[in-house]
Amino acid sequence: MTLVIDGHPFHYEMENLCRLFYPDSKIKTVSEPCEDTVLAYTGLKNRKDGNLLTVRLKIENSEKSSRELLAPGMDGREIQRRMAAALWKMFSEMLGYRPKWGILTGVRPVKLFGRLARKKGENAAAAYFQDRLLVSPEKTNLALKTMRNQRKILSASRPDSFSLYLSVPFCPTRCAYCSFVSSSVEKTFRLVPRYVELLCDETRRTGKIARSLHLRLQSVYIGGGTPTTLSADQLARVIGAVRESFDLSDCREFTVEAGRPDTVTEEKLDALKAGGVTRISINPQTLNEKVLREIGRKHTSEQTLSAFAMARRHGFDNINMDLIAGLPKDSLESFQNTIRGVMALSPECITVHTLALKRAARLNREEKPIFSGADTAGRMLDFADSALLQNGYRPYYLYRQSRMVGNLENTGWSKPGFESIYNVLIMEERQSILACGAGAVTKLKDPYADRIERVFNFKYPYEYINRYEEMMIRKERVKEFYGTSENEIRNLPQQRRGD
Asked: What is the mean pLDDT of residues 136-149?
């Protein structure tokens, strides 16, 4: 399809909106109208009496258009919203499809809802979502419930709090839907020992920086990839580096993803338990054997059940399980059986993802029908939301990704008191996240302003290894961000520290 941008700066927003309806199509952006099967025109013309907003949409032989004269001096964000709403309504009417998140294309809708609620109240925030952003009532309600369930966690974050993320970008095999920076151990096995050595070193250096700034560690998350791809000894070394480098006296959660059930062993669980890990993930994605084979998973549903039981025997009383709605060859009935099967295990957390097909994923389909699987994925999420609520789970964090089937969402559900602290903090961007490992991104949050700055590690394990010292120079930016004085945070007035 072709998108015409005429006289306005909202290129990025309009392209993302078009992608809600044509997620797998290449969108050509031009400045003047031309011929195409699908053509969206968005124009803004300055006039003496205001700005003339024009939106036209042509899909094959059908066409719709609208014109609106906007008041002089109207805020740019409101102009953008009106343009997006006009185009969204045209797409919806012509295609008979209404994305449930309306014109929202951002990753963090709950963060936006919370900001609106703090300014105007919950009712006004809900009205703005539905009336101005065109979000459906059910998704608005989901955002509201999620925001409420996050409050206790967010209120405990202090100006000197931070969380730690460690990346282990290795997996037994690469799943067909995966677009993360992760490598099959079959291909990169020789890199693992050196990678672990440098990851431990970076962890120690990062701990030294945190101590010099008198920061307080609130949560630890070791993710990937699949961290349990490492051996028990390697896991123990990585966890040991965390424990010797950071003061864990204020740490409320220590999570390790044991995502692939076929990587879970007695020895590895022993290493996690001995290292003080309090929360793990065992992620089946589905309990349908045919779907597992379709997405390139080498384990079986029986291995999932076995790994979960093994973790329980080792005393893990906070386990998350990830599922994905919209997987190829999966049906609504099959997904419902997966939800029921996982709930029967009674894990403390269940995270329900929607399939997102990024360009790097093997399953990515170019130029496919615009709503492939959207209706089924939507009904899967509706069932999951209802079933989980009825069984005592509550939504506590939510985020979205580009190219998600049906423009839907990923939602973390937990039993009360088992919400993942790290997941809430990373999504709501309320504190700094210091990150180590390949592909990791340190996110520095000013405790007294909206300012956020990122420090990127090299993406791939071989880059991380070969350019390690160069990367460590970047890490000094953490000190610069907080200020060169080692006493800056320690000497904050008590009322500002939240003591």
From this structure: 98
* Shared domain check, 146 and 164: no
Q: What is the pTM of this model?
A: 0.90
pLDDT digits (tens, 9 = 90+) for 228-279: 999 999 999 999 999 999 999 999 999 999 988 999 999 999 999 999 999 9
Domain limit, last residue, from 397, 417, 437: 417
At 378-429, the pLDDT tens digits run 999 999 999 999 999 999 999 998 778 888 999 999 999 999 999 999 999 9
- Does the structure show a pLDDT above 50 at 495? no
CATH of the domain at 386: 3.30.750
- For residues 290 and 413, membership in a common domain is answered with yes
User: Per the domain annotation, does 270 fall within a domain?
Assistant: yes
Of the listed ranges 209-223, 296-310, 351-365, the least confidently predicted one is 351-365
Q: Same domain for 476 and 437?
A: yes
Report the domain count for the chain: 4
Residues 238 and 161 in one domain: yes
Q: Are residues 291 and 411 in the same domain?
A: yes
Task: Answer yes or no: is 101 within a domain.
Answer: no
100 inside domain: no
Structural domain boundaries enclosing 122: 109-152
In which residue are the tokens 């970047």 written?
A: 474
Domain co-membership, 354 together with 446: no
Do residues 246 and 298 share a domain?
A: no
> Does 143 fall in a domain?
yes
